[in-house]
Amino acid sequence: MVREENVKLMSKIAIYEKNNGRQEIPMNSFYKGDYVRIYSLKAVVHATIAFALIAAIVIMYKLDYILSNILKVDYKILAMYLLMIYACFISIYWIISRIVYARRYEKARPNIINYNHDLKKLREISEREIVKSMGGVVIHDDFIDF
Hints:
The chain is mainly α.
C-alpha cells in the first residue's frame, strides 16, 4: 500500500541524491581529516602540473632571450629562484585548498546527517509494514561476523 509519508520521504531522499548528494554522499565515507588531506594532496598534485605547464610556457615565450644568453646565465641561481617560487606557490595553494575542503566538509555534514536520518526513518517504516503484513512475526536472518 502506498503511504503519503513514504512517498514524501522517498521524494526528499531522491531530490537530495540528485542535487547535492552526488558530491556530499561520498564525503560520508571519510573522516574530516582524511577527506581534507586526500583532496588537498590532489590539489597540490594538480597545482604542480599547472606550475610545470606555466613554466614551460614562460620558457617558450623567452626562448629567444634564453638561447642568446645561454652561456651567460647562472643556472644554479635560476634553479634556486624557480624552486623558491614553486615552494611559495605550492604552500599558498595547499593552505587555501585545506581551508576550502574543510569548509566544504563542514557545510555538507548536516545535510549528510539529515540524509542518513531520513534513510533510517524510511527503513523503520518499511520494517513496520513488513511486520504488519506478516501478522506481527518477523524472523531476521542476519549474518553475524565475529
